[in-house]
Amino acid sequence: MTYRERKRNRRGRKRSKILLSLTVLGICVLIALLAGVGYVLSVSASAPPLDSLKPVEQGTSSVVYAADGSRLGYIQSDEIRTPVPLASIPDSMQAATIAIEDERFYHHSGVDYEGILRAAIKNLEAGKAVEGGSTITQQLVRNLYVGKERTLSRKIREAKLAEELESRHSKNWILRAYLNSVAYGTVDGQTAIGVQAAAQTFFSENARDLTLTQSALLAGLPQAPSELNPFQNPKGALERRNEVLRKMAKLGYIGKQSALEASQEPLGVSHGTLYTRIREPFFFDYVKQQLIDKFGVNTVRKGGLKVYTTIDPKLQAAGRKAIDSTLPYPTDPTSAIVAIDPHNGYIRAMASSSSYKHKQFNLAAQGHRQPGSSFKTFVLVTAIKRGVNPNTTTYVSKPLDLKTKDYGPWKVQTYDGTYGGAMTLVRATLRSDNTVYAQLDLDLGPKSVAETAKEMGITTKLDGYPAEGLGGLTRGVSPLEMANAYATLASGGIRNKPIAIKRVAFPGGGDEDLGKPKRERVLTDAVAYEATKILKQNILSGTGTRANIGCPAAGKTGTTDNFNDGWFVGFTPDFAAAAWVGYPNALLEMRSVHGISVAGGTFPAEIWNKFMQVAKGGRCGDFPKPTTAIHWSPFFGKYSTQGGYSRGRTYSYGGGNGATGGTGGGGGGDSAGGGYRGYDPRLYNGNPTPPSPGGGHEGGGGPKKGGGGGGGAGGGVGVR
Questions:
Q1: What is the tens place of the pLDDT at every residue in 332-389?
Q2: Are 558 and 720 in contact (CB under 8 A)?
Q3: Which has the closest alpha carbon to 482: 373, 614, 619, 323?
Q4: Is the pLDDT of residue 219 over 90?
């Protein structure tokens, strides 16, 4: 064989090997393609039908409304979302989204195979992923159905469901759903879901008011919300916005000149406050906690609730104005006022002068302070319930140095150190005489007085000690409790449960009515009426004259030892309100506020007056006459003049004074001991542990046997 023949044979064998290799390779590729197709078909076939899938419940932000329908605010959550119709989304936002996310949106059926090929080529050229091939429909499916795991099987299922979704819904439906479900970024811990939340978060605008440049910025964010956040990366956000503008011009949505001019504009972002701004924050927090207590924290956080409350914004404003106009200076004490509708228990106002920014403590609902003589009303009502006639039952007003059988020694003095001798309970109420009420409390039984207070609406635990009848409580009470308890008199003896929420509407449909009044008769209307008649006189000629609003009204003042707390609690046929004044964070005496000592009949009564002038509106009716009657019974209390204690007896007028207390605890002052030494921060902040009973201080003295003040029954007393 010649050399040429051998060379020719070698070439032939080489070509045969190459051909064989190519054939084998082709077969392998074909097998791989067939396997790939089979895998795709298999995964696609295993994907559940769209009907069997339940979309992820993205919900909406829960919103709270006032009684007039105005919005108080949104309940904070990790995600904020308010869906809007497509008609409320400007064309610029729709076009910008389509241009940058899915330019062939109106030409494919859920999956853009041309777009996938184009993206693959660009990614190969760049050597990294620079463009995705997912359509808007696929992204919507990912948001609502299949999640965001990065696997091939997920992409296949996503594509199948996208085509199925397109077969069931219009392009407008899909675009609207996408624009209401895509995440645009997180600011201050809250992720803006949907274009409305994004417009408010980044521009403090509604979606319908977005401009071209604003639309372009938002449309570019979903690609990388964290990296492109305009508050954190303004340069990157600006470049992305301008990229969107160029793409819009390329596709003919806007002119090239418009795109050029828009790209020269600044970002113009502005922190939105719609989802964080809250009106009436103290009341708002009160409502939120009630929602959590009722429905659980998960339901509240999940969102979508529409909460309709009882609060009246006009009365809220009236309450704050009454406080601010009375105590306008930064160094003035704090004040809080609560108003309740006695017909149904609706909380109509819950206002205070505290700054929510500096302290999220609701003085009106959470603050527990000593009520002073405003608690004497429960002693009076207890007496009337027993058939004790306040017009004929008399006690002697005098300094007391008592040695009680069940509660030990008790020294009591009047607020101003003057005594009126024998007087009826009516006169003692108008004078707010401590010594008369101390004797009456003992004759009635302190536990009976505590029971009356609970029946009328006091929910704080009471101990049933004598000093409680004069306002010396171990734990104090809140303005909300006092307003509701006095509302029992305004409603003719029917106690209401305070109601802040009227109705809650749920995102899935349906609602729950929480506004049905919860009422219980605890006093006859005759008992309530008799107490009301006396408290009406107190406003006309007693300690509460500053509260006179020129219409029928009733109420009682209260001041505590060393002028730490001042109260006025009163009512008309339509409103019951409690006004409190004091320093919440320190033991500060209000002995020189605007040049006067703050007693219940001063600033608290004045604030109540100003508020009620607005609250009463044009109503000036009197309290209705009772339908029942009281059968008065002779009363022979141990300490009453009828009981013989005052006749032919020698009274001890000595004992410790208000400053030193003596062995029986402090006397005088404008509060009732009960171991109370003034404001206790532990109690104010909700700590249920009471201070140890003490004595020897103004108004000190333990309320129980063997208590403070050298084992006395309680020394300080509430007055006026």
A1: 999 999 999 999 999 999 998 866 554 556 778 878 899 999 999 999 999 999 999 9
A2: yes
A3: 373
A4: yes
Residue 71, φ and ψ in degrees, nearest 5: -80, 130
pLDDT of residue 2: 67
Is the pLDDT at 585 greater than 50? The verdict is yes
| Tokens, residue 1 | 């064989």
Alpha carbon 618 to its chain's center: 31
| Eight-state DSSP code of residue 678 | S
Residue (of 391, 522, 369) closest to 452 by Cα position: 522
Residue among 585, 579, 604 at smallest CA distance from 593: 604
pLDDT band at 425 (very low <50, low <70, confident <90, very high): very high
Q: Token digits for 377? A: 């009303």
CB 709 within 8 A of CB 695: yes
Distances (CA, A) of 197 to 179, 188, 236: 11, 13, 21
Please give, one letter per residue, the 3-state secondary structure of 570-583: EECCCCEEEEEEEC
User: Helix 313-326 and helix 603-615: axis angle, to 10°?
Assistant: 150
CB neighbours (10 Å) of residue 13? 10
Q: What is the mean pLDDT of residues 419-427?
A: 96
Which distant-in-sequence residues (6+ apart) come within 8 Å of 230 by Cβ?
202, 217, 237, 238, 267, 269
- Strands 190-193 and 79-80 turn out to be parallel
Angle at the Cα of 92 (from 89 to 93), degrees rounded to 5? 50
pLDDT digits (tens, 9 = 90+) for 252-289: 999 999 999 999 999 999 999 888 899 998 899 899 98
